Amino acid sequence: MAKPETTVGQVLLARVEAQAAVLAGLDDAVRADVPDAVHRMRVACRRLRSALRTFRRLFAPGTTEQLVVELRWLAAALGGARDLEVLVERLAAQARELPAECGPERVAAALERWGESEYRRIRPEVVAAVDSPRRRALGDALATLLADPPLRRRAARPALPELSRIAAREQHRTAERVRAALAAAAPEDRDRALHEARKAAKRARYAGEAAVPVAGARAERYAERMKAVQEVLGDHQDAVVAAATLAARPVADAEPFGYGVLYGCQLAAEATARERLPGVWKRAGKPELARFG
After folding, report:
1. Which CA distances in Å does 211 have to 14, 83, 149, 281?
2. What value, to the nearest 5°, has the Cα angle with vertex 71 and ends 67 and 74?
């Protein structure tokens, strides 16, 4: 007897189950402030939310919308701590590379002291979110979804052609946002558009990751190319956030000259990311990349 063909619904549920297990296993690590635990929990939230949104047509209408809302809430509750960690690591590392006349160690130390103070302020909010009834209800909702999946008939379709179609759709969606970002004239509009393109690339990457168990190396290549786009756009967004933070002068006793040079580094990083984007997208935007069959 021939082995039954894998369905797109099976691929979806395997993805949701795997990420739900990751999410459930990180509560204690986040409470204990284990390094990288907040980041890993946030990524699991994003992967789950992306799966539920990207494959939403496989679910009965109205059955996953609230779950998406709750995953967005938890990711946002974790976001402040993680974003601060990335920001301080970036700025302190760059500060230590400044010329001697900028007072590199003094600037870096001042930034790290500020980061530690801010983290102590934010940390209780993270623990409160993980310990909240809302977090427990989210775990229960994921368990209920997996115990009795509200799938539509189309979820029984063969996986490979459906996954290719979804990958092509997400690739097209990302292409539209990249084009809009590159065409934007005003700096604020451009930065906002580049951030939206980053989110689209991340969602496309996650769609590729979900397809790997069925599509293998083709889906891995698709995910890798989308990850490259995401990372370039992430470099840009990190520089935008860092520049805005420095402009607000969070560290009153920092060396003014070193502070100004560090601000200039962010502007240069933004420009470099924008220059790199067309070339990176050219590799990720090839239509054949989304053909998994």
Report:
1. 10, 29, 19, 21
2. 140
Determine how many CB atoms are found less than 10 A away from the CB of residue 1: 3
pTM higher than the cut 0.90? yes
| Rounded-to-integer distance, Cα 259 and Cα 262, Å | 5
Transcribe 214-263 into DSSP letters. Answer: HHTHHHHHHHHHHHHHHHHHHHHHHHHHHHHHHHT---TTS-HHHHHHHH
CA distances (Å), origin 128, targets 45, 125, 148 = 17, 5, 30
Q: What's the pLDDT score for residue 217?
A: 96
User: Given this model, what pLDDT does residue 1 score?
Assistant: 34
Note the residue count of the chain: 293
Please give the DSSP secondary-structure letter assigned to residue 70: H
Smallest Cα–Cα separation from 167: which of 249, 71, 55?
Answer: 55
Tokens linked to 182: 């590159």
Rounded to the nearest 10 degrees, what angle do helices 8-24 and 37-54 cross at?
Answer: 160
Q: Which helix (H) or strand (E) holds 255?
A: none
d(CA 148, CA 15): 15
- What is the structure's pLDDT at 257? 85
Note the pLDDT of residue 253.
63
Q: How large is the C-alpha radius of gyration of the chain?
A: 21
DSSP result, 215-227: HTHHHHHHHHHHH
CB count within 10 Å of CB 109 equals: 16
User: What pLDDT, on the 0 to 100 scale, is given for residue 214?
Assistant: 94
Q: Which residues of the chain have pLDDT under 70?
A: 1-4, 252-254
Residue whose token pair is 């699991």: 44
Short-list 169, 293, 284, CA closest to 231: 284
pLDDT in tens, 130-183: 999 999 999 999 999 999 999 999 999 999 999 999 999 999 999 999 999 999
Structure tokens at 175: 């292409």
